[in-house]
Structure formats: C-alpha cells, structure tokens
C-alpha cells in the first residue's frame, strides 16, 4: 500500500514576531485550505492512503469536511496522544516512519521541520513554508507538493535520485548529543527561554549556520551578507558578534532591517566541534530559544550532513513523465 503523511503545525505563523515585527499571520483556515489541496494532489497521483497528524486545532478534520466529492484514497489519523507541544510532531513523524509512510509533507517553518526531523528517520520530507523566517522549507503550492509526494510513493522512486541530503547542526552538552538545528543555532544573552522567538539583534553573541544566502530573511540573512553559504556547500559559517569596527544591515525578521555588529566570522568544517564561548546564555535553535547554558557547562556545535533527506520536486515531476512499466 502506498501512503503519504502530512504534519501541520497549528502554531506556525503566529509567534510574537507578529507583534514586534511585521510578519503576516497565517491563520488556521488558510492552513485548512493548504492541507485540503495537498490531499487532493496526493489523490491525483493515485496514492492508496494519506496518514494525518491529529492536531489540536482540527486542521485535518476541517480540511476533509470541505472536500465535496468522495475521496478515492483512504484517510487515516495516527493513534497517538496529543499534548499541544512541539514533541507531538516528533512522535507523529516517528510513527509514520515506523508504519512505512513513503514521505511526509511538513506544513510549518524552520522550527517545525526541526522537530519533525527528530522523529522522521530515513523518511524524506516535503517542507512547505508557513512560518516566519524560513530558510529550510520552500514556498510551493500544496497541490503540487501533494502530487510530487504521491508520485514518489506510488512509483517507488529511488531516494538517491529523487531526494537531496541536507545539513544540520549537532549540539553537544558535556560531550553528549543534546539537540539539533537545521539552519541556525544562535547564542543569546537572555537568561530565560521566555517568548522563544529571537528578534533583538543586540542580544546575539554567537551564531552557527548550516546555510546563509543573500535572499534569506531571519538569522540566516546575516550569513548571507557576510559569506554566503549554499545548502549544497560542504561548509557552514560561524559569526561572533560585538565590537565597533564593523556593522552590517540584516533583515532579521519581516520588516526589521537592523544594524548588526560583527567582530569576526569564519567557515565551519564538517565534523569539527566548535565550542560555545559565551556563558551563561540561551541557545536558540532555528529561531526559537530552546537550550539553557549554565556557566560551568561545556557546549559544542558540530556541522554534519545528517539532516533529513528532502524530496526534489523538479526531479520527481520530471521522472513522473516517464511511462510506468
């Protein structure tokens, strides 16, 4: 049986940056439309089953109720407890992977894809952007995303030819792997996790990046202004903030182009652990404050190619043109 999963973050696009910056609000109803179109795209590819995340906002129930014609595929909700926490998405991805789902469409931002990755194993992702400052997911019509995900599942395309690898940052606490980030790990002088989102440039002390391009918004834009790192490059970037000799303007949030003082920056090599030097602090992972760093802790950041595999939409759609045997 061919199956595709969908995980949607009901909180994506609603964080505090809507108040302190000028980010647009993607409400629940719009996510309902996105999910509905994705399901219809998946059906169009001939998939047998779509596996759905039982989110607390009932996005998927509402999406299904608005489909007028009877679906030809089977819809199934995961049997799992929901606590309205980020870890719900991690557990959902883990269940989908264990149940043999071919790939999962992730509707959310960098942070959503990070928590899904922690449970997705070898299952490829189809990341659709709905968050605030996104470098990892892409802006793509969900009908096309569903169609591509469906073709990948039905035609049993090879992961080696129809997906691409991604990088990630491994965060080590006293020598033990503690967490990961897909785009950025920012060391800030906050003392509490608080509202989670990072939008105050003056609080930044260090930054570790898997990528950073001039067209990015968010913390990755800082790397794009200093030394662009592409997603396919075998390198990352380290930035130390402060000093009064150099400053760049960076769009760290929608509508927020601010000066950022730069003390120095340099490339990160694959497999090399770099220490977090500013303590005590808070480390934000993919834009959200997550880890508390105490003064006596030893934290290190390592760049690797252990990120999730991501469906290459263009290659899948091109391969789908070929007749099946």
Descriptive account of the structure:
The protein has 325 residues and is an alpha+beta fold. It has 2 domains: 3-166 and 308-320, Probable inorganic polyphosphate/atp-NAD kinase, domain 1 (Rossmann fold); 168-304, Tumour Suppressor Smad4, CATH 2.60.200. 26% of the residues lie in helices and 30% in strands. Strands 12-13-11-10-9-15-16 form a 7-stranded antiparallel β-sheet. Strands 3-2-1-4-5 form a 5-stranded parallel β-sheet, with helices on both faces. Helix 2 runs parallel beside helix 6, helix 4 crosses helix 5 (110-120) and helix 6 packs across helix 9.
The CATH topology name of the largest domain reads Rossmann fold
CATH hierarchy class name of the largest domain: Alpha Beta
Mean pLDDT: 92
Radius of gyration from the alpha-carbon trace, in angstroms: 20 Å
Low-confidence stretches: none
**Count of DSSP H/I helices:** 9
Strand order within the widest sheet? 12-13-11-10-9-15-16
CATH superfamily of the largest domain: Probable inorganic polyphosphate/atp-NAD kinase, domain 1
